[in-house]
């Protein structure tokens, strides 16, 4: 296993470990709270790994003891005082593109969550396909506690993850969740001991990176759109997606491997 730093900035780092890209929010002294430069760097880093065909799975994590504390409120207070009419431009410029990239990139994305994961941090984690969460983590929507509503896709992803009624409770009351509680609600893929989230996420991402990337992309698209269409439309979409997946070398190799009792290898072709 080879790890290579492929891009490095003060705000966000990207490292490649074989076919896995690890994107790290890098403000550990501020619990990885999000400033303008951090959000710009994260948006651009995710766009880059999404477009990189050598990357077959992605991990999103935070440096140090925390995942992400959401918006840096000191910066936000300054934006409100200097130009309140533009203080929320960041939602369309940063938060929405970041959530879109995580949710729609044509490869699996795993969140490795330690410590604080609140506000936009929770939105980013829920936009990922899988979440590995430390038992020491604290998760919360947080928005209503500062007089705001959802951003970073949270109104969409939270309801999908845990259902409408419970999502309303978490958004309106903004009460923090332990990892254990979040897992009972269906928000957590794997719970691990503190300090183990990234290693476990790497194991999952490496497994996914060795799998049929194009089939994963088709599955992500179908699952993202299931509630937008009728059953007949979803069945038709499945048929088209299955035809595309069935035309890949990955599918043919997997069938051959099954018949010969060998382990399939994926090529992404």
List keywords for this structure.
3-stranded mixed beta sheet, globular, 269 residues, 11 helices, 10 strands, 2-enoyl-CoA Hydratase, Chain A, domain 1, 7-stranded mixed beta sheet, 17% strand, alpha/beta, Lyase 2-enoyl-coa Hydratase, Chain  A, domain 2
Describe the protein in words.
It is a single chain. The protein is built from eleven helices and ten strands. It is an alpha/beta fold. The protein has two domains: 3-209, 2-enoyl-CoA Hydratase, Chain A, domain 1 (Alpha-Beta Complex); 213-259, Lyase 2-enoyl-coa Hydratase, Chain  A, domain 2. It has a seven-stranded mixed beta sheet with strand order 1-2-3-4-5-7-10, with helices on both faces. A three-stranded mixed beta sheet has the order 6-8-9. Strand 1 (3-8) and strand 2 form a beta hairpin. Helix 1 (36-51) packs parallel to helix 3 and helix 5 (154-162) crosses helix 6 (164-173). It starts with a strand and ends in a 10-residue tail after the last helix.
**H-E order:** EEEHEHHEEHEEHHEHEHHHH
Termini Cα gap: 23 Å
Number of helical segments with 4 or more residues: 11
Structural class: alpha/beta
Strand order of the largest sheet: 1-2-3-4-5-7-10
Report the β-strand fraction as a percent range. 15-25%
Overall body shape: globular
Residue share in helices?
Answer: 40-55%
Low-confidence stretches: none
Largest sheet: 7 strands, mixed
The level-1 CATH class of the largest domain: Alpha Beta
| Alpha-carbon Rg, integer | 19 Å
CATH superfamily of the largest domain: 2-enoyl-CoA Hydratase, Chain A, domain 1
Q: What would CATH call the architecture of the largest domain?
A: Alpha-Beta Complex
CATH-assigned fold name of the largest domain: 2-enoyl-CoA Hydratase, Chain A, domain 1
Total strand count, please?
A: 10
Task: Return the domain count.
Answer: 2
């Amino acid at each position: 296993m080879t790890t290579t730093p492929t891009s490095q900035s003060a705000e966000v780092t990207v490292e490649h470990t074989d076919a896995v890209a690890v994107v790290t929010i890098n403000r550990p002294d501020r619990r990885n709270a999000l400033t303008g430069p951090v959000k710009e760097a994260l948006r651009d880093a995710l766009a880059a790994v999404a477009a990189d065909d050598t990357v077959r799975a992605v991990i999103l994590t935070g440096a140090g003891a925390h995942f992400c504390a959401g918006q840096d409120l000191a910066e936000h207070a300054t934006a409100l005082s200097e130009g309140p009419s533009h203080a929320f431009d960041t939602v369309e410029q940063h938060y929405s593109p970041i959530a879109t990239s995580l949710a729609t990139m044509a490869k699996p994305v795993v969140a490795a969550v330690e410590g604080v994961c609140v506000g936009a941090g929770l939105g980013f984690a829920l936009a990922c396909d899988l979440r590995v969460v430390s038992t020491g983590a604290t998760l919360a929507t947080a928005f209503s506690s500062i007089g705001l509503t959802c951003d970073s896709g949270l109104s969409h992803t939270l309801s999908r993850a845990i259902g409408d009624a419970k999502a309303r409770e978490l958004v309106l009351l903004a009460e923090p969740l332990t990892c254990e509680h979040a897992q009972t609600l269906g928000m957590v893929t794997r719970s691990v001991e503190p300090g183990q989230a990234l290693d476990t996420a790497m194991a999952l991402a490496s497994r996914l990176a060795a799998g049929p990337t194009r089939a994963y992309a088709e599955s992500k698209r179908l699952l993202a759109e299931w509630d937008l269409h009728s059953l007949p439309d979803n069945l038709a979409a499945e048929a088209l997606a299955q035809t595309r997946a069935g035309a890949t070398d990955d599918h043919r190799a997997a069938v051959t491997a099954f018949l010969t009792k060998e382990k399939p290898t994926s090529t992404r072709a």
